[in-house]
Design brief:
Length: about 475
């Protein structure tokens, strides 16, 4: 009887089921292995399959059947275990149709609502779509597809805080609704704080608003409206309070005022107007008038209250003082006054080669007053019954009498000279029976009166030089030859 052969099933040709290490490139066809052979590493709990048995260059691939389970008790993943997925993983609702959670092989993650809708999607590149599954544009790293509610921890805490790459504030929204744009903190007690350069672009229409400011009334009223064409419209009367500061307009442009259909006085026509009001009832109006029944075209004036205009400049290069209106303007003169003109202090007038012409109803008149009720009147060139043409008069206005008359024929008339020296001072003129005398000195001759008889002791004939050298004798009659 022949002996039974000793067969070891672990050494079946082409398989090695008791290896203690992984196969190498020399575990090839020469060593008895072929494509499909199985190699089990019992030490490291791994299994391999031969996919190429070329001598000296065998290739073994690790199969999924080897190794310990990643799961531990109670269906949990054990510590340090790694699950490798090479395809999409989907978690669906109980019906198995709609996704609740899905991990794509690309690394994207999707959250579904279990009924076919998409709540959010996280992309492998870091982009996030909340409330939807798409990114609006390449510049939108995070896209919000639905209404978003953010609750603050407190009124002073940031509900939303956007910063730049330097950690500086770009946009902050506080819990009380106040916000800061372009900064990290509020300047004062403002609700909305705009910091840094701010540009506001209009809607592209000339009458559209680039910026409109309203009040806080129940029905808001537009206060200021900055239009797209650069104009500014006021909705209410406004006051610009500059305090003790200066308001300066600079540049090479022209500063223009136009009040539209609003006049500086209710009965006047439309004018360009500037009103200065000190807040205590003193109001002054500077205007440039249009042609009307009251104003000349191009007329400039300074007006007080009502229709009183104390100063006007007419386009005929004339100046008027004292509310001289269009109807009473005399264009023959450069300066015209409506009433008395008072000048305090010294008046220094340099005429050069020019002249001063005084005219009052076709004859010159100059009044000189002492500041009370008495004044002198110098007038001439009259043609009426009172004054002769070409004459010049010095007239006592208080006593209504002519003092001195310079006649056109060269003669002088002084009808009011005193007729005696009584009360006169040295140098005063007086009328001595048709003879003009100076002062109160006694004459050097005997005055002859009608009906008077003179007695003389001597008669002498002398020259003027001899008479001036002697002391006259009252009883001697001198004949100067």
């Amino acid at each position: 009887m022949s002996a039974t052969p000793n067969i070891n099933p672990l050494k079946i040709k082409g398989n090695k089921l008791d290896a203690t290490s992984a196969p190498s490139a020399t575990d090839d066809s020469y060593a008895g292995y072929q494509v499909g052979s199985v190699w089990v590493d019992i030490t490291n709990d791994k299994a391999y399959t031969c996919v190429d048995a070329t001598v000296g260059n065998a290739v073994w691939n690790e199969s999924g059947g080897g190794g310990a389970s990643i799961y531990t008790a109670n269906d949990t993943i054990g510590t340090g275990r790694v699950a490798t997925l090479t395809d999409t993983l989907s978690f669906r609702e109980s019906g198995g149709t709609h996704n609740v959670f899905k991990i794509f092989e690309t690394g994207d993650v999707l959250f579904g609502d279990g009924s076919g809708g998409v709540n959010s999607k996280f992309f492998a590149n870091g982009e996030v779509a909340l409330g939807g599954s798409t990114i609006i544009s390449a510049a939108a790293g995070i896209t919000l597809h639905k209404n978003t509610l953010i609750k603050a921890e407190s009124n002073s805490a940031n509900v939303l805080n956007i910063i730049n790459t330097s950690s500086q504030g770009v946009f902050q929204v506080k819990g009380d609704g106040n916000c800061i744009i372009g900064g990290n903190s509020f300047v004062s007690t403002e609700d909305i704080s705009l910091q840094g350069s701010t540009l506001i672009k209009g809607n592209g229409t000339s009458t559209g608003s680039a910026l409109a400011i309203y009040d806080n009334d129940t029905t808001p009223v537009k206060l200021w409206d900055f239009l797209d064409n650069g104009d500014i419209n006021l909705g209410v009367d406004s006051v610009v309070g500059i305090g003790a500061n200066d308001l300066t307009f600079e540049g090479s442009g022209i500063f223009k005022l136009s009040n539209g259909a609003k006049s500086i006085y209710s009965t006047w026509a439309t004018h360009t107007t500037l009103v200065l009001d000190n807040g205590n009832g003193a109001t002054y109006r500077f205007y440039s008038a249009n042609a009307s029944t009251t104003f000349n075209a191009g007329e400039f004036g300074i007006g007080g209250s009502g229709s009183n205009i104390p100063f006007r400049i007419f386009n005929t290069s004339s100046v008027a003082l004292g509310n001289v209106n269009k109807g009473s303007l005399d264009t023959n003169y450069n300066v015209q006054t409506a009433g008395a003109t008072l000048i305090g202090g010294n008046l220094d007038t340099k005429l050069g080669t020019n002249e001063i012409s005084l005219d009052h109803n076709n004859y010159p008149k100059l009044k000189i007053s002492n500041g009370t009720q008495e004044y002198w009147l110098i007038e001439g060139d009259g043609t009426g019954s009172t004054f002769a043409s070409g004459d010049l008069y010095l007239y006592d206005q208080t006593n209504s009498q002519k003092i001195l008359q310079f006649k056109a024929n060269g003669t002088i008339n002084a009808p009011t000279l005193p007729t005696s020296a009584t009360g006169l001072s040295s140098g005063d003129l007086w009328n001595n029976n048709g003879e003009v005398r100076i002062g109160t000195s006694t004459p050097n001759y005997i005055e002859k009166s009608v009906g008077s008889t003179y007695t003389t002791n001597n008669l002498l004939t002398v020259t003027q030089a001899e008479y001036d050298a002697l002391t006259p004798d009252v009883n001697t009659i001198y004949f100067i030859v």
